[in-house]
Structures are given as C-alpha cells and as structure tokens.
Amino acid sequence: MVLGRDNPTRDHQAFQLQNPFRNFGLLVRSNPFWLRELSLVGLNLQQLPPAMYTSFNITSLRVLQLKQSIYLEKVFEYLMSSKEPLLLHTLKISIHSYRESLQPDEAFGFAAFCKSFSTLKRVEVEICADWQTNLDAHVLSSHSKLEVCILSLGVPSLNMATLQILRANHKSLKVLGFRCQQIAPSLDQGRFFQEAKKRTRGLAVELSLFEKLEGWQLICQPVHSDPSPVTLVSCRTIAMEIYQQIVAAYGTRPLTINTISILARDIYYTQDEVNAGKIPDMRRFQFLDVVA
Questions:
Q1: pTM (two decimals)
Q2: Residue 111 and residue 137: Cα distance in Å, rounded?
C-alpha cells in the first residue's frame, strides 16, 4: 500500500494528508488486514490518522519505505509501541531536499527503532543533509541476518571504527554502500587522484575482512551539476583501479567481492524538482566478475 500527498504542487497544501482510510472503510475495522508492504511518500507523518496503525496487522509487515516525509519518528514510535512482534525485513528511507527537517537521532528515533527488533535483512538510508545517527553505538547490531546495508547519511563516508563494528556484527552482509566523496574529482577528470587512491585503498583493506561481502557501492556527489562529466569511461577507469586495490588487499585469499558500483548524482534538489519527480537515477557502473 502506498500513501502520498494530494496535489503536491500547491505549497500551502504541502505535506497535508486528507484521511484516505475514511474512503477505504478502515476507521472501524474489527479485524486488521494483513499488509506486507507500506510506502509513505511526501507526508507529514504527524497527521496520519490513528486508524492507519490499527487497520493492519503489525506482524505481517515486511517492507517499510519512508520517502520525502517529515516526523518519521511518529511511525517508529507506533511500531515500537505495538504489543505484537515486528518482523520487518526491509527498511528504506529516502529524503532528497533541503526542506526536510532532520533532527538529531535522540529526537528522531531511528536508532531506538532499529534496536527494538532484530529481523532486518535490508537497510537503505539516503539522506541529503547530515544525519546525527551514531552508528558507532551499534545501531544495527541486533540485526545479525542483515545482507544489504546502504548508508548514505549526508557524511562523506563511514569511518573505520564503524566498518569494524558492521563487520563484527553482520557476518551475513553481502552488499555495503556508503558515501565516498573523495572519488568525485577523479570521476570528473577520468583519472584516479592521490587522495582518492589513499582513501579507497584503506577502505579496500577493511572491506576485504568481511566474510561474505560480494558488492561494494561507492556513492558520491558529482563535482559539477551537468550530466556530462561523469562518464562510463571515467567510471570504468576508477572502478578498475579500485578493483586492483581490492585484489591486493585480499592477497592469496579467495576473492569474494565481485561487484563494484559507483553511484554519482546530485544530492540536493529543490522542492519543485522533488514535486515534479525530477530526481534522476544514479549513474551507476558495475564491475562484475572481473578477471585481472
């Protein structure tokens, strides 16, 4: 089920929700329905009627997507307050504009929410502004079966200590993605600069210690706003050199990482661009099953 705002181009109605459940007859349901996926898009989540939360069975929810919405903690608070166990396996959060009001984690509730259950297999968080979530505090540590972890939190990259914690707590992790802004100038020029080499070499060493890691996503904001600088040729050049760094880091051990994805796109968008859906797909280069 997907809920979104009505008439988003009118500023005075932005993030206003007219109760959609009244039309669905969900206000007085005695038997909650089984809902597997829930997407909340472009909403002020403080305005969601209580009927939304009492109309579906919490235990059936497997996928939750929160996109371009504010007061996300209201959804987290309800899910944590349920007496029924939460069995969510996919959580996606995507906020692309300056307009969103992001709060420090203590008020925002993401860390507390993640610590309240243990069934996540996929987490994708893409936030334009710096997000104060302290991943060093083992935010995701209870989710031992996590397989995909994409954390683009508005900061350049995860530090080594955080990577070590992820490695220690998530033995099943297959795909890891995070910001690595150091490669952006190299993509623009089509050659690997020293700063990028140094940074990715250190990351390659740390990632080579993950037991089952198959894919590494490097996310960055292009140096220029027009689409021409980031080309397939430059992505391929940089990906090849990063791959060689990974090979060197593994040494004689069997290589598990077989996919390198470079994802570059503008991080910030105006509200008009967001409303019009003018958020381009990330330019991606995947280096699959490479033979050196």
A1: 0.81
A2: 9
